Amino acid sequence: MECISGVKSEDVIGKCAFDVFPFLIETGEDKYFHEALAGHRTVSKNRRFSVPQSGYHGFFEGHYYPLYDDHNAVAGGLCVVRDITYQQHAYGLAQQALQRLSFHVENSPLAVVEWDSDFCVSRW
User: What are the tens digits of pLDDT across the range 65-91?
Assistant: First the structure.
């Protein structure tokens, strides 16, 4: 988490996550924390974030899990965070390329036929 956020563990341990990262409430990400405390596993995808402490911003995917004590009662939660900023950027570039290609194909004076492995025509 230090690598993604730029915030050192000694600046976070023992503090409320929402005080350290106010964007969690501002973006509605806090609902996933509450779901974990209610005993549910949840996933948030393609979530935008900005860390004021480091100036870093991007996208993440969070997997939230409840943590149980010895009596099988929910004692807390666990979140596994994956920075997907580069994947989102690559996806955006691929979408732009597809749009350009589609524009050229649709506006070309050439005949274009596209088909799948069963020879079913998908573009004409």
Answer: 999 999 999 999 999 988 888 888 888
Domain ranges of the chain: 1-83, 86-124
Task: Dig out the tokens for 105 from the structure.
Answer: 């194909």
Q: Measured between alpha carbons, how far apart are the two ends of the chain, in Å?
A: 49
pTM: 0.66
CATH number of 1-83: 3.30.450.20
Rounded distance between C-alpha atoms, residue 119 and residue 17, angstroms: 55
DSSP string, 45-58: EEEEEEETTTTEEE
- Planar angle of CA 16, 50, 58, nearest 5 degrees: 130
